[in-house]
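Budget justification note: compute hours in this period were largely spent on complex prediction jobs such as the one shown. Inputs:
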Amino acid sequence: MTPIEVRFKLDWPGFALDVDLSLPASGVTALFGHSGSGKTTLLRCIAGLERAGRGRLVFRGQTWQDEKTWLPTHRRPLGYVFQEASLFPHLSVLGNLNFGRKRTSTAGRIALDQAVELLGIGHLLERKPDSLSGGERQRVGIARALAVSPEILLMDEPLAALDLKRKREILPYLERLHDELDIPVIYVSHAPDEVARLADHIVAMEGGRVVAHGPIGETLARVDLPIRLGEDAGVVLDATISAIDPTWNLARVDFAGGSLWTRDRELPIGKKVRVRVLARDVSLALDDPGRSSIQNVHPAIIETIAPDDHPANHLVRVRLGDSRLLARLTRRSADQLGIAAGQPVYIQIKSVALME
Amino acid sequence: MLTDSDLQALGLTVRLAATTTTILFMLGTPLAWWLARSRAWWKQPIGAVVALPLVLPPSVIGFYLLITLGPNGPVGQFTQSIGLGTLPFTFWGLVVASVFYSLPFMVQPLQTAFEAVGDRPLEVAATLRASPLDTFFSVAVPLALPGFITAGILSFAHTVGEFGVVLMIGGNIPGVSRVASVQIYDHVEALEYADAHRLAAVMLIFSFLVLLAMYVWRPGARKGA
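Corresponding output:
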């Protein structure tokens, strides 16, 4: 599939956007950055809600914008989810869902039914938006965007306006979207955990520019990622549940180059999962630590040692078979261990987060 | 109770107010939308012109309209050239004057209502395939509906309450320009206080009912809100 060509130059007082990118035409691409980095503006430019003076946007061979062309938002085959669900208060949930569907020649009943089923909102159809909870409203907002059978889904921090409980309520639905939708999704977020959970590709932005982009595994494993992740530095591994130990309530997940034991979350064997390993949860040892409370110990090779955000720390990337992990250690312990690139070490992984 | 000429005056008043309000909906809605959405620098001067009738004495408006629409005024010459004659001292002359006079009562509530709708619902509609015109009718109008109701009631009521402009531009011709307010003035002039009382009472009750309806309808007046 041809990538989406995105090029925008925009000058506002106090803010400039300058982006030239090819976005993958499949999977979830996270536009990631701190607030003010321009990620939402970029998304709005893609949707045509903001008009960059100079720009070029080509989606699947259709030119949405160039010097001569400007396709208005309502003629772009996209779906858009806003930060606040922004449901039409004068329409019922079903009225909201039908609003776009009625105006789309290609969208049949099927898209609507699928969206309702996918977001689990079948019991809410007759309700008015003001009687819904924040989480329910956002699920309706997402379903409404899907009901037009979009060719691309744009999501602007759909979880940012929700509290932790509501976020947890919606995340499983977003994960289902990730698994079941075959259209590209562009997802704006400033939350590393959401990105680690949902994204396949990352576009990291700062000050209106792209500072790094690539597949999530590679990008998060970079020790020189220009964007400061702090405590959230860490990698994401694709893995499969391979064994369950009911005695200790543990599950084994296999990834390219190794395996880990983690808490059993009652997922079936063979289930594909994503494992997030934070740099702060990985430590290094020169010798096999032997008897230790940490069960996940693997031999690995040091690839790179780089300075971390804080001057006391180093970020070390190690290779474990075909996988890369990051470890955070103090500069002093790196010095005392005398570690260097190419050296074999043992890595101890204290904890991991399992994501479906 | 009311004399035939009273009833005629009341009928004329209602016809004038209804016609004016209808025309104002058609003119005022796009104007209010533009005032609410535009970022042009000359939007403020236009807004001020629309608001002028709020502060000008009706006789001043009536005077200028009389000059403009009269046989030597620019509009008067135009209406004569296309065979319509001149507008002053006709029903349609009154309508034109009332449209000007009641314009702010239509435009300002609508403008406020459109501004309160904000950008977001319109953007949402655009991402759901609605063209700007479609968005206006399917999103902006329903969301601004209370504003339309207020604007309609105020324009109608304000036209009913006209007096000075009517005297200047319409005179006092039975069935053509003698509306209820002028009729009351005539009664008083002729010392027919009993007749004046009856008609004045009708106007008082009408005005109260209109305002009552508005306060009941206004969304801010909902229970508990």
